[in-house]
Amino acid sequence: MEAKAYDLYIGGEWIKTGSYIPVLHKYTGECISQIARAERHHVQTAVEAAWETFRNDRLTPFQRYKILLKASELMEARRDEMELSLIREVGKTRKDAMNELDRTINTLRLSAEEAKKIHGEMIPLQSTEGSENRLGFTIRVPKGVIGAITPFNYPLLLSTHKIAPALAAGNTLVVKPATVTPLATFLLVEVLEEAGLPKGYVNIVTGAGSEVGEWLLDEERIAMYTFTGSGEVGRHIKARSGMRPVSLELGNNSPNIVHHDADVELAARQTAARSFHNAGQACIAVQRIYVHENVFPAFSEQYIAHVKQLKVGDPEDPATDVGPMISEKEAKRTEEWVREAISEGATALLPIRREGALFYPAVLANTKPDMKVVCREVFAPVVTIIPYSDLEDAFAQANDSEYGLQAGIFTRDLNVAMKAARTLEYGGVVINDVSTYRNDVMPYGGVKNSGLGKEGPRYAVEEMTDERMVVINL
């Protein structure tokens, strides 16, 4: 496999740098690309290019709509290329890559529609004495240059969730993709420009987040930052951004409750299917399963039976369900957490097995709340099954987390479902499906240490525009 080099992409030009970083095939370890390592002056140039493009922006909302819609069509036409790139640079299985492509194409379409819907509202100024001759209304205007920092686990989809709404709203961007999975962003921008996006609207700088991210935070001309990643980095961005707004999606430790009146077969099938996709490297992947003691044996038996059917291995094999983690280092860290839990009394319901970056699905019982696999975001193919007898206790245990992105509950009782919706301290509560369910039209975002702001094209456009009041004295 030839290792293609990607330079920085600034103002529509490819910019070489003094050093390059290898991008590895996550299953074979082979070098599949080289990406440029940006220096501070490159970041400054990228922000300047984005700022100048924004100042001279001439795209109408309808033109933005046409570009984003055309991009969705072009991405569909290049599906095989896009999927293979995700399989190799992320380690996604073909099934997961197909799903990411489907969602990316849909997000482009949704963003295209939002470009035509941006509007303000009438304000009844005349209802106040002395303002009878005033006409008031609001308009929504783009913020300017958006600084976007994207994660490794869904590099195409989550880049699209930042880039497409920003463009729909009339902004320009400087994007810093994850160093280990940057290729998807280059392919996305290539598709957008093929669809008619003028050069300079999206600029890509690559390199270590500890360097490039800091330089982006130094740039006062960036009007807003949007970031998906760790809580530690998210808190740092919020502290450094000053008065500028931020949108932060910072992870989760997803609880899923199986109540005594649940459809146990449905719950077992759904949780097993969505516990280990993308090798468990999803913010809303199933991690903690709280099961009522009356159905605990039946659920556990069926859940394990479904998990045993999952095939682990080469992500390019269409039959594979679980591929490698992002690196052997992360797989080793996962193994350490699991074995630590076992040493402290947890029981492994499946053999603990690791082969390089491949970590086979692990299911643990008899865990304690303070074990890392329970109280922290494991971000790996690891699940804990925990019995409960009282629903209020299950809610309390589910809420006993610093995170609050999404949760799930299985029940046939509408009252229980609505109580869960009101009690669980999460940005989203999914009834009779797993916490992992996400439709890209949804307002997606969490509470507590799961972040600030909402994604989903409509909601991202609101985040990336300012409401401006207009008053006319007639």
Keywords:
39% helix; seven-stranded mixed beta sheet; single chain; 15 helices; six-stranded mixed beta sheet; 474 residues; alpha/beta
Describe the structure in your own words.
Helix 5 packs across helix 15. The protein has 15 helices and 23 strands. It has 474 residues and is of the alpha/beta class. The strands form six sheets. A seven-stranded mixed beta sheet has the order 15-18-19-14-13-20-21, sandwiched between helices. It has a six-stranded mixed beta sheet with strand order 10-9-8-11-12-22, sandwiched between helices. It has a three-stranded mixed beta sheet with strand order 1-5-4, with no helix packed on it. The model has no long low-confidence stretch (mean pLDDT 97). Helix content is 39%, strand content 22%. 50% of the residues are buried. The protein starts with a strand and ends with a strand.
Short description:
This protein has 474 residues and is an alpha/beta fold. It has helices at 40-55, 61-77, 79-90, 94-115, 155-168, 183-194, 209-217, 231-240, 264-275, 296-308, 328-343, 372-375, 391-399, 414-423, 457-463; strands at 4-6, 8-10, 13-15, 20-24, 31-36, 122-123, 134-142, 145-149, 172-176, 202-204, 222-228, 246-249, 254-258, 286-292, 347-348, 354-355, 358-359, 362-365, 382-388, 406-410, 428-431, 451-452, 465-473.
